[in-house]
Batch of 3 targets.
Target 1
Amino acid sequence: MQTEQVQDTGAPLRSDQSHPVPSPSLRTTAFRVANMDCRNEEAAIRARLSQLPQVGSLSFDLPARRLVVEHELPDPRPLLQALTEIGMSTSLEAEGTVAGGDACGSACSAACGGSVVSLPSTHVFTVPDMDCRNEEAAIRARLEPLDGVNLLEFDLRAHRLSVVHTLPSAEPILQQLRALGMCAHLGNTTEVAPPSSPDADAACGPCGKPEPSLVSVPAASGNTTQFLITNMDCPTEEALIRKHLGKLDAIDRLDFDLMNRRLAVQHRLGDPAPVLDALREIGMQATVEREAGASPQGRATYLIEKMDCPTEEALLRKALEGLPGVAALQFDLMSRTLTVSHSLDDASPITAAIERLGMAPVLRASSRPAPAVTSEFGSGISKSQSLRMAAAGVLAIGAEVMAFSGMGESSLPVVGASLAAIALGGIETLKKGWIALRSRSLNMNLLMTVAVIGAALIGQWPEAAVVIWLFGIAEMIEALSLDRARNAIRKLMDLAPETALVKQPDGRWEEVKAETVPLSALVRVRPGERIALDGVVVSGASAVNQAPITGESMPVEKNPGDTVFAGTINERGTLEFEVRSRKGETTLDRIARSVQDAQGQRAPTQRFVDRFASVYTPVVFALAIAIAVIPPLFFGGGWFDWVYKALVMLVIACPCALVISTPVTVVSGLAAAARRGILVKGGLYLEQGRMLRSVALDKTGTLTHGRPSLTETVPVASMPREEVLRVAASLDALSEHPVATAIVNGYGDRPHATVQRFEALAGRGVKGDIDGQTYYIGNQRLATELGVATEPVRTLLEQFEAQAKTAVVLATAQQALAVLAVADTVRNSSKQAVAELKRLGVEPVMLTGDNSKTAQAVAAQVGITDARGELLPHDKLEAIEKLAAQGPVGMVGDGVNDAPALAKSSIGFAMGAAGTDTAIETADVALMQDDLRKLPEFIALSRRVGGILKANITFAIGTKAVFMVLAFTGHASLWLAILADMGASLVVVFNGLRLLGRSAPTDGRGAG
């Protein structure tokens, strides 16, 4: 059945319809693949690109992370898409064309009168805020989608970014950087000139004109080693490590993930031993977690059921570390996995060595992704440490009591108790202080060490003991609080069971480890059980609680053909499903992995706090020295009084509360959002959400369901409505038109009539015989041709058209029987979501490619006043630019036609992302459920996070300021100073953790 509406698919006309197709020329395209650094990635790329028939040879340069492809494609976009599909972070480096036959190369076409080729330019930007790979990833995500951007090169140590592009100016790049919160400014610019050497003529061939080429920007090279550092969890350790490793010439880049105690080091060393030695010199307990580099190392991952304690680990280490070709071992006792980095042709010697120990190793696929989250660290505080701190507290308070009872503060019992308390409760702090002094790094451990030693030197032994004990207690409580925030995402992973009931080849059902279940296996889930893996239902019916993935409060009905997700709960009925994602690749794993990556990104507030602390601490330290020395030397002040004031000032100078407040709050906010089915890609977007002033909404699939449905059935003759539906659905069941499908779906599962002599009427509709009568169903043109378009029929057709509905007429050759209307219906949640956005002060704007009449009709239904229709992708981009000029703007789109506008917006949202890999990977914020109400919920949560961040920073700085004054006037003791520092730290930490315990408000106006 056809209607008068014609949809432009946007497909280009075939060139052979107008002129002969020239023989394809062989093209050579070079790509920069940032995460291609070992043979496993090379194998995956070869396997994926071999599926494209136009691809010829592949050339890999793993040290430079460079791939050169010879192909016959008209442009490299299919190659980029294929590489992106397998998780490769790819950008276009350079492209040239090897002419074939009499064809002229692309560089020559402009010179010969063809289309003009823009000469690439290289702009160098200085970006002071860009100092780690998280910022690099955010910038890549912003700039690489821009048309005209060819290549990005980063120098993080120098805070420089080089962009090779064909844009008319650097302004669009600067705008994108500033939208990310980066204070960027333009450095030097180099125009790429055509070669001027005498040999240049040979580069072009027939035309004799030189071919422009891209500037060769040196690529980053070297190995990347990831370390697990169990005692690194705050910016103090990060600063110490940065300073110490920065002295090694072969270190190119450091990437910190404090929340998961990971450090990735890009280096040019033969092996990571010097890095390990440097870390251990400053007291860091580091081990190599993952090693990848330019060497052709393979990686084999084994599942070993019998490996679950350090005894087995020691046995395996002894057996494998001396094996030729084995480079590194990585143990995960919690999941019973062993990863072996090696340079062997195959892993059979490793497998045999493990089997000789009586263990049964299962070699998993080499392409298996990394674990979604790091293993649990527990509380990080041992029983012996707790006992030592308890004993130190008894001794420190005992020393104070003895001093108050009349014993001198320098008497032997008081000094002995104080020394014992310092040894038990403060030795770790003193060690860290000594390391900081050795490396000339001014941090809180050094300040506390100087304060304690100074107090002891002036005879204040009890205060020295109490100060260092309270500082240790504060550190313990902060560690526990950080663990709570850190483990919030890991709790998501506990939702997916470790085992699954799998059908065996002989028909038995057996409970096996979820990690061993292959793709396409059949899994059974009984009522009340959690689903272990993603899959598609093949038999059974049930309701599934999908709250962990989508945040939906109500269970969702599941029938054959529906998708189920790992971690969701089967509430009633038995389901059998076919596995579509293995353990580590499920939607739940991708969510956890994405949020864990987001935790490592420094939010704008955190960058401000770090910069403030880096200035504040040395200034206060210098002030304390001045207070201790100047009054006694120049104004006759007493040394004891002024040194004591200086020591109090040092304790107050500790920026602990300030630096710890932001990461705890941001991580808690990310975890709280994930619990609600909102996946936020980093603190940057979590903070920017509260500043949105407008949100651009696509119509189809966002405000509406995205598929047509039957809305009206109006008989205009004597035939009953049910009979009208039966006849219309029976005819349309033989048509593939979307309007026909909507009518068939509207009729439901009831039986259809038998249709004979069915015929499609091009551009008008269909006809067929039912029960001996010929029926027609089609558009107004068909009704007019039949002569049945009476005045009532035309009135109904015009009425439905005014409502943005597609109307068809059911008729015989003599009369019209009924008018049926089909439309893309508005989601029930859209009107409420729009109202909530307006209540939050965010203006919703509709941008759609549909006709203006349809846009206005849908806008009226949901309450949007600014609706713009008939927009092409570049029109949407222009609209976003105008909205962005008025303030930060978000956009909800499909990521394909809307890609330019999404890239231009401050925050790009993807809706209904639970089943789509690309939305989870590419969107700034992914709303896992098809519910637009999640958008105002995210903005409200962002405002609450912003309010808590402001409150924490204000409280921390305010507390410091008050006690500075008290210390200077002599009204603050060391006791009060450490209690104030400890109290401020605990207040800001617990204030941030409140986000984990409460739902986000729908009205965020009071959130600050």
Target 2
Amino acid sequence: MAAADQGVVAAAVAPASPAEVSDAEIIVTGSRIASTGFTAPTPTTVIGEELIEARGITNVIDAINEVPAFRPSQTPAAAARGGTSSGGSFVDLRGLSAVGGAPTARTLVLVDGRRFVPSNQIGQVDLNLIPTSLIRRTEVVTGGASAAWGSDAVAGVVNLLLKDKLEGFEGSIAYGQSDESDYKEYSLSLAAGTGFAGERGHIIAGIDYVNNKGVPDAFTSRDWGREAYGNLALSARPAGTPSRNILPDVRISDRMAPGGVIVGGPLDNIEFLPGGITRTFTPGTLVGGNQMLGGGANNSNDGIYFAAGSNLVNPIERYAAFARLTYEAFDGVEFFVEGSRAESKFSGYSASHRDDANLTIRVDNAFLPESVRTQMQTLGLQSITVGRIAYDDNFGFYKLRTDQEVDRIAFGAKGELSERWSWDAYYQWGRSNYVQKNEGTEMANYRAAIDAVFDGSGNIVCRPGAAGSPDAGCVPFNIFGQNSPSDQAVDYVRKIMTNDVTTKQQVAAINVAGDAFDLWAGPVSVAFGAEYRKEKVHSTVNADSQARRFDYGNYQAISGNYDTKELYFETVVPLARETAFAKSLELNGAIRLTDYSTSGTVTTWKIGGSYEPFADLRFRVTQSRDIRAPNLNELFAGAVVGRGLVVDPVLGTSYQVNSIVSGNLDLDPERADTFTGGMVYQPEWLPGFRASVDYYNIKIKDVITQLTAQNIVDQCEDGDLDLCALIIRNAGGTITEVRGQSLNFNSLKTEGVDVELSYALPQDTLIPGSVTLRALGTYVDKLVLTGVTGPIDRVRQLVPKWTWNASVHYSYGRFGAMAQLRYLGSTLFDSTLVGPDDPDYDPANSDSLNLNRRSPVAYVNLSAQYDIVQDGDRSLQLFGVVNNVFDKDPPPMGGYNPVGGVLYDLIGRAYRVGLRFKF
């Protein structure tokens, strides 16, 4: 069964089975050699079009994330607040993109075997911008593949193969929503194709449209959200109480209130209400930092939940269009030209402006309630410290908006040199434009506006001589009481920060493949080629953002480019076939030479083998050297100047220093050594059964990271002279500046096992129709990042030890159904903390946590489809899906994000129904 030999072939609800996939359709993404007799030693998972349809999925990222080897990465349901990836959907094989510092691309994404233009400067490809309805198959190489495909293929490769032939017209329309009547999604897909010129030419075009209305914040939309779990950190605490506590009813502490609250001093905990009214704010039973357990005004528990107002799922509207024309101009030579256009619009809200006990209000403030002013005068106070969180109608949650456009054009040709040799060549151009417009508070204006006084005529004005160069036309801002600020004052302090980023990519490549000569066991197949690639980024930001005048974000301009020149060679050497000791034995080797304009020349390679002692059993093994080149942001990010406290071990004191963080043109590529080894068992005595087990071990050196100023100072003291060069001291020996560039500093290691079992029962065995059983599992033994503080194993924090996806597929006549069980093993809140389940737990220690272990979770999904019309090329199919059938809530978590990650289902029970048609 050629299809199964490539890896895990996704079983389908449709009558067609995996065994019916023809040899000619198989492209081994793990290799450049497409010989149908070659079984690649690198494990390859295949996600078929039928599985995507059976699950009712409108974005291929959702199907990919159900493969246990993937860590669900950022999606619109877990969008970063104002980051460079807001609203995107990105792949993360083995969790390697999430560990080691800022998110980056350690999984290479291809479309039809060609790179796709990155969606941002960190090199990620947003799968929102690829039309899911036109994907005929997704191949996932779960092992290093840099020798075959180049940089970024450290964890593996995701290759999205689009439909190249279509006759007629097809499409689908669907609607979905959650059990809570939110998460409403409307989707439409259309595609058409036809041959022309006596079938020498073919044209295909299609478009996907999806509009998801999102979900409000968990506090208002979900019962589990209203439990208000938070991470309460305590320095001073009762005996027996751990340092950190995951508890319900955790709220913003008495350091902030919607209308302001006095923090510290003799007037501590006076809360301001509209109209000059005050009341007493009672702290919770436990108070730590800016959070507390319970509490509120007059102990009425009306304190504010930390994540209230931030959408659980931000709305996103997107479309992706694609067209391809092919024409066989000469016998055996086919030319093609294709283009794609995609847009996504992401909008929503994030947490509002917060003054965490950092506002100094003078006694002569014009808006200060007279009752408080009188008390201050009586006590001889010239000022008070106030904390405030912006929950006003006109000065509330920040609006976020991201618009992204991607254009891509490719043209090329392929042909045959002889019966044994083929070639292909192409040129591709791509452009991604990413525009963020996020609200923020312009801090110089804000500080000037809240310092309001009476002028000589009794008018309220901003105090003259404000620091920080505020804009002209200052409008006094009343912070005392919720909804007290005027619209004019809000307009003066709340501005839009913009970040307009354009990335461009050009790729030209030529590939040749064929059988070089014959050995005793068969032909020696080779593939070789050359590739040129140029990546470029340029951004513009508004002046206030560049000057870092906002309370968060403050996008910085970036500009730069690099190019690569690559040569590769790959071969498959058959060593035995149909002998006494081997049904087949093949050796696979590859080498790639890459010259980077920024970091010089690097060599990647792979050696592997496949051994089939008899028809039922096959062993496979690979060893490879893989790389991830520095991305555009790591190389060219503009200097960001900050200021922070540093403990100087030389002078024995601490003081404020300037910290300059920037890109680094001297970065080297990350280097990975990857080993995979496993077996495939497909017994002839049990037709339809297949099992595979594969071990993987990935070690990455020179992991790119960004050290803090304190990290650099400490490492210099420990003898790292390279880092000492980043510290600038004046003549007196005092540090004046620390340059925090991206550096090749950390290392990363992961290992584990992938398991796949499938059994297609003989037709009509148990019940009329066909039944297929499947189970995919991944066990992660370790995911260790070694950095400044030493090795930390992030298994059970970033990924569970065990993840399973099991399913039953049934079809009979016009009806098909699928039941799926997704299992996530227990996880930890933080790998660096110690909970009661750990023998080293001591609540008196600073690393103690009351609840570090989350229990395993299982989700059940059901789907069904029925062919209303089946008439040759004409069909009409009704389908329906229920996800999270038992409405399983995510486990308790803490932090700003109420669910603390992307592993768990946040939506709850959700439904989708639709129609598919073809004629």
Target 3
Amino acid sequence: MIDARLWGKSDGLAKPYPVIGHLVDSATVCGAVWDRVLTDTQRRRVAEALGVELQQARRVVMFWAGLHDLGKIMPQFQDLAVRARPAHCGFLREAAYAHGRVNDSKVKMVRHEYATHRALPQLLAQLGYPVSGGRIARLLLAQVAQMLGGHHGRYPEGIEPQDLRDPLVGLPELGAGAWEGQRREHVAALYEVLERPAIPDCGALPTQVAVVIAGVVIVSDWIASQEHVIQRQQKSVDAHPDFGSSTALRAHARSAERMTSALVEDAGLGRATFGVNTFRDMFPEIISPYPLQLSVEAGLAGAVNGPGILLVTAPTGDGKTETALYAASLMGAACGTGGLFFALPTQATANQMYGRLVRFAEKNLLESAQLTLLHGAADLYAPYTEPADHGAHGDVDPRVLSDHEAGGDQGRQISVEASRWLRKQGRGILAPLAVGTIDQALMGVLPLKRNALRHLGLSGKTVVIDEAHAYDAYTHALLLRLLEWLGAMGVPVVLLSATLTGETARGMVRAYLSGADADAGAREVPAPSYPGWLFASVHSDRVVEPAELLRSERERDLEVDVRRVTHTYEPTVEGGRLATLLGVLDDVATGGGCVAVICTTVAEAQQTYDALRAHYRSRYSDDYLGWDDRSEEDRAREDTDAGPRLRLLHARFPARRRAEITAEAERWFGRTDKPEVRRPTGSRGAVLVATQVIEQSLDLDFDLVVSDLAPMAMLLQRAGRVWRHAAPAPTRPDWSEGPRLVVLAPVGKDRGLSVPASWGDVYAHSLLRRTLELLERRNGASLAVPGDVQGLVDAVYDPEFASAAPEELMEQDLRRMADDMARHALAGMVALPPPRMVRSLHALTTSDADEELVRTRLGVEAVQVLPVFENEAGRWLDEECSIRLPESGRGSKGRFTTAEVRALLGYVAPLAHGPWRAECGLAHVPPAAWRDEPRLVRLVLLPHRVTGGAGRGAVLGETRITCDRELGLIIHREGR
């Protein structure tokens, strides 16, 4: 007989809630998760692995989910309520529950999930689960114990053979006598309530199946553990004086069943189903689809019959995003996936894609499905977090959308608003639709706590990975491992790239195929055409490619003007970098137009901007105001005598200032068919000095791009910003006769390549040398885009590259390859093994790292700093000393609201970790009340003393850090 006095939940409740009640609740919720969240494909894979019918598989998984808290039936756990509920816990003094604690661990308490893990194998064996068939780790009952023992996020180590015979020998804390008997009774009772689920006659499940079930268990537990659920189910307990009897437990299960579907829906879980139509139906706003889009539509029709990987390579602006969304819908329907995850390289690109995905969902979802934005600052992105004021600006709320579909229910509202439940940390990946940074997926192949949730969230979706070329060797190695896992889980994948070497592309396709089938990884994969695409199916050896060579709507001849320059900012040095740049920019100074100058580092961009500002002041008088976005006088002038408008954009501005500059750049250089765009025209031009930040996330068009020397792929990416928009095309100045990229190549006294020390190791020197030599071999011949692109990108990595300086190149190549090998090796050390090589689930969650601090990309760590301006009146957030630094928030007990946190972080800027960090002291620590807010507690304050209306920068050892409105954070090292 079940003893319902054994409690499973107590904190915050009017009375303790029985363990058996929670076991039944969790099992019942699991049934709803199985029905409403898992796809047909996922359910079928589980059933096939278990060797049972679908309905039996459902009940087996429900049974397992219900057993997760069995370990709460042990003395140490039940003792936790003795002090708070002495009357209820009086039964623990009964003789049947006597427990000698002399053998209990004196070091730490045994956690209940670990107790589940150790007690369960014997109990499953008693039910009839197989106990033979190889080493114990390969037994299903041992794996189930690991899955349930990991329901708080970390899989325990494997069991020992003696645990099958008597777990009390190794873990006496479990308790003998009535404790042991009640664990057996609870297992038997749940087994009967679920109508005696089948006993699978199989060994351990494939890893990719086991982790999905583990994720289902965690989600079921979380939903069933909500306070309002327990309070409602407590009424069922109270209604049955004989609670614990078979009749009462079946009634309890029926009570839970009546609300489980609503609980899953309220959590925001479910599946997203897109209508699979023609490309034009899905994107009616595109009157004339690009050839790439039509080719993929025609080529995939009839070719997709299951999981596979689609690789799309095309220049920027050829419609890859729409192609990916169309293909993802088609591939998802063929594979029976229930959602989409769109992965991008940066937070800025993810934020932009969020809006695009909302609009796509509005037009194409068959029913409501929730959409989450996933990155470290998603909850601070206003369009995602703030409900829109429909009356204030006439805009439609981007989070709650409606559309009238032909043949559908008129007036039916399609919602993509993410629930509060899904917005909790770690849950967003479970939403049917998600867009975020690639890190959110890559963390699924790192041994982090609760990565079963990432496995569950990804396994039922189609995954799109954009900018697949944009990562270093370390991140690329993690990406290859992710592709292996996705292949093993049967997840259809779309890869997008503008500049990807043929061998790298083939390697990514092979990684996916090898995950799905070890033999498939050896399949011959052709090099992708450019522009072009290829689709490799898991179920077929055939690789589908375009029926004919594609032509790009953006075909053009790009003039690449390579200038060898000495790296000096002296304007009088002939052939120097500044003198050459001033000569190149003379056309915009006299004839108008829009130019981007892209620099290698923030410091170089700041110095370049400062030098240009000084030059224009000397040329146009000290009253030159083209740099000042606050000047009403300058805003009104359009004459040449006012001098070019000049702006600086990089990542080291405080967030709100960077957003202001970015918005202005989009108004100046964005698509002219957008109503907010006001492109500078006439005789007064504009110059934007920037770093790589404008390469990916901003849709900008310039009449000329000037760039420091960079690897070929990056130069071609930057060239995508020159003469970018063709329909409609902006008005061009007379001097701009076609797309032109000027490359400033640094050289030494011998006129050979000499990479400035200030560039550090931003780029591998061997790639810079190879790029420079390839470009100069063309002798000024224009570059055909896209015709020459793939050949140039591949040539940079050619092992037989014939260099004009072979010995120097060999030395540089060896350094580059050694660095790449080290990064690959490091990724191999930290990443999960491929699924087929996992011997124990324990290996999947061994790290104690905080996922917010996990690095999926190598490089100098960024510190979030907050410039603070101090005067006699106090501390301020702005140099004008008008916005006071808040010592605490306006919420309860001085806590900060989300809006207040967002406002504060608008003044924060990232700064590379360095010697200055070790010099920080109490003056750089946030106020005490900030410690309760995770977003604020890690900030480093940079005090600026305000004298004479200007802030003197923070001095940290030999480093002075100054926040300047036009330049951003300036780093100056004393004595240099």
